[in-house]
Amino acid sequence: MYTQEMLEAIKIVEQTRERRLKETFPRLKPEEKENLLRSYHPDYKPDATRLVKVGPNAGDKFTHEHADLLESRSMLDPDTFSLENIDFDVDVLVIGGGGAGTSAALLAQEAGASVLIATKLRHGDANTMMAEGGIQAADKENDSPAIHYLDVMGGGGFYNIPELVAALVKDAPLCIQWLESLGCMFSKFPDGTMHTIHGGGTSRKRMHFAHDYSGAEIMRTLRDEARNRGIPVIEFSPAVELIMDEYGQCAGAVLYNLETEQYLVVRAKTVIIATGGSGRLHIGGFPTTNHYGATADGIVMAYRAGARLIYLDATQFHPTGVAFPEQIVGQLVTEKVRGLGAQLVNVEGEQFIYPLETRDAVSSAIIRECKERQKGITTPSGMQGVWLDSPMIDIIHGKGTVERELPAMFRQYKRFNINMAEQPILVYPTLHYQNGGILINDRAETSIPNLYVAGEASGGVHGRNRLMGNSLLDIIVFGRRAGMNAAERAKSVKLGRLTLDHVKRYHEELKKEGLGQKVAPILLPDYRGKIS
Amino acid sequence: MAEEREMVNIYIMGKHYKVPYGLTIMKAMEYAGYRFIRGCGCRGGFCGACGTVYRKPGDFRLKVGLACQTVVEDGMYLTQIPFYPANKATYNLEELTPTLGTLLRYYPELTRCLGCNQCTRICPQELSVMDYMAAAQRGDIEKVAHMSFDCIMCGLCASRCPAETVQYNVAILARRLYGRHIAPRAQHLAKRVEEVKAGKFDEELDRLMKMDKEELQKLYNARDIEP
């Protein structure tokens, strides 16, 4: 429930609303955007990063939080850990039970492979489940994969790897059709035409959605399908190290059962890392929208095995995280709220940024409005935020739209006695997405033989800034590609003796630099005794 | 911060802790020293990992909430129900027909519903679970699909059901039947898929892929934006 002071502040927003309904804030010119990012985006803070000292990217810049993990030692002692007893022997091991991992598993099994999914929490505990806004695909008459390509490249600052972007936009319609055939309930018109809207940085309305449970709908559908097909899943058993063979091929992983605290050895002809992102590292001290297990495990394991990382220093801050109420600070307010017409407004009731600029730009503008121009609104706990004028949605589209189109958002606020259809909500940027990751090619292969990566753990497709709706797309496109290619490859793989020598070598490298005091992957954040 | 805050008493599985007022149950448990393995997933109200039941002193009623979305209150006696055994049918969606017969074939127990309404009362999403189960018994799959759409599959309904039905698994079967067999297919999508497969966009994409940053930037800045 809003405080009296906040209710007073809301009156100012209400006073300017009628005028603003007719007002379009000018879009940023390219050089304005560049300046805004350099001045206010957290990526550009000089003390946010450092050069990492070991591994394939030694000498490259990483956030301290990622560098800390890369400069940590393994949970395992490679000199004494035995790989003699193999607990599971499969064609394809999928590490991670989110959208990318489950897509990969489905496709690998279809291709005839024996598949095992190992996951840290439950099957489906992943950022996929929490994705609200939607999934992009150029499938309308006025759109094309080429236009989608241009939007993705521009959004990513033209740093994206062309072959990955081409794969993303070309597969997009196929992936939506695959999901439709699996019974995913996309929001449609009575004749079957998909509802599509804009996201930040899109030039066509190509965001498909399922109310604001888009990711949840996709995740539970894929999970149900995996269960129907009997794909085995080991829950609460994250991978903690990759296993290689004597020929330098990836050959499986060591899992750690969080409940029994026992290790399990999985031998696999091919391995797919689909471990997601790293929001729970709280990069830069930011709160996060991410699920509990987003701790960059796959990045750590692949790096030790020799895989190159790309753009991992580019962090995505979602412009609209909850700033009030305090209990849910940092949780996501979907971009769809702006897609439906809600404007961002400062303490004076004025707009300060076109609401559907790319996420990096909108986040930077909100930070500028609060920190530099002092036009934010202060909450009782001392946090700053700006208004997202959600009541505009019902005025523009008719009464009941918020409740119908944004049921999850509406419910989230109603639980704290805020009616977002009638009252604006307070937002501030929140840590949302890992733009970079393990470098892959358009077959989802890494530089390590038999090791594949799909989804948020991978890097290159989004450049330095992902557009809304391209993450759900990414996990399906590259999850499917990884699954198909890994299954195909598994048919001809001959594995040699299993080893952890790569870990031994990494430990030696750490020792030379005086590093390796900490252990990674960390698997779960630790909030004990704190107010997180 | 913590020192300034008003504290409340909660009882986690009967054990007393003092925690700051205003925290969610999840954050209060962490403040008390818990590090979750189960009972914590998305932390945002979407995954159904943290279903929690509690009572308050002097009130016989059993209350419910998601630990990540519910604020602690003084005197709360709580426990999480992170897992509840459930009957899950396996099926090949493609071969099914969206009929009452299909629902009954996989979940015959749904006719055992006593109409006690406990499922609706306990649902942390405030869905009308009993009503959608009634629709399921009539074979109104479309209605089940829409009414159950916001389900997060936390399993609390099944934990309370005297007829031993697993409402959320009936619901996902209905939703997938609806999405696959009842909702009309998107024609524009089918057409675009054919075009992609026929290679209609390959040449244009190849051209874009070969462009340097300056050329692309020029195109990007000049692109027209659908109003």
Task: Provide the descriptors you would attach to this structure in a database record.
heterodimer; A: 532 residues; alpha+beta; Flavocytochrome C3, Chain A, domain 1; FAD/NAD(P)-binding domain; eight-stranded mixed sheet; five-stranded antiparallel sheet; 21 strands; 33% helix; B: 227 residues; Ubiquitin-like (UB roll); Fumarate Reductase Iron-sulfur Protein, Chain B, domain 2; 2 domains; five-stranded mixed sheet; 10 helices
Task: Write structural notes for this entry.
The complex is a heterodimer of chains A (532) and B (227). Chain A has 532 residues and is of the alpha+beta class. Chain A has two domains: 4-40 and 317-431, Succinate dehydrogenase/fumarate reductase flavoprotein, catalytic domain (Flavocytochrome C3, Chain A, domain 1, Alpha-Beta Complex); 99-250 and 270-314 and 435-506, FAD/NAD(P)-binding domain, CATH 3.50.50.60. Chain A has helices spanning 4-21, 30-40, 64-70, 99-110, 127-130, 145-155, 162-181, 214-228, 297-304, 336-339, 359-372, 391-397, 401-405, 407-414, 470-490, 501-512; strands at residues 49-51, 61-63, 88-95, 115-118, 135-136, 196-197, 207-208, 233-234, 239-245, 250-256, 263-273, 309-310, 315-322, 344-345, 377-378, 384-388, 425-434, 437-439, 451-453, 458-459, 498-499. The two termini of chain A are 21 Å apart. Chain B is α+β, with helices and mostly antiparallel strands and 227 residues long. Chain B has two domains: 2-80, Ubiquitin-like (UB roll) (Roll); 84-215, Fumarate Reductase Iron-sulfur Protein, Chain B, domain 2 (Orthogonal Bundle). Chain B has ten helices and five strands, in the order E-E-H-E-E-E-H-H-H-H-H-H-H-H-H. Chain B has a five-stranded mixed beta sheet with strand order 2-1-5-3-4, with helices on one face. Chain B is flat and about 70 Å long. Chain B starts with 6 loop residues before the first strand and ends in a 5-residue tail after the last helix. Chains A and B meet through helix 5, helix 6, helix 7, helix 8 and helix 14 of A and helix 1, helix 7, helix 8, helix 9 and helix 10 of B.
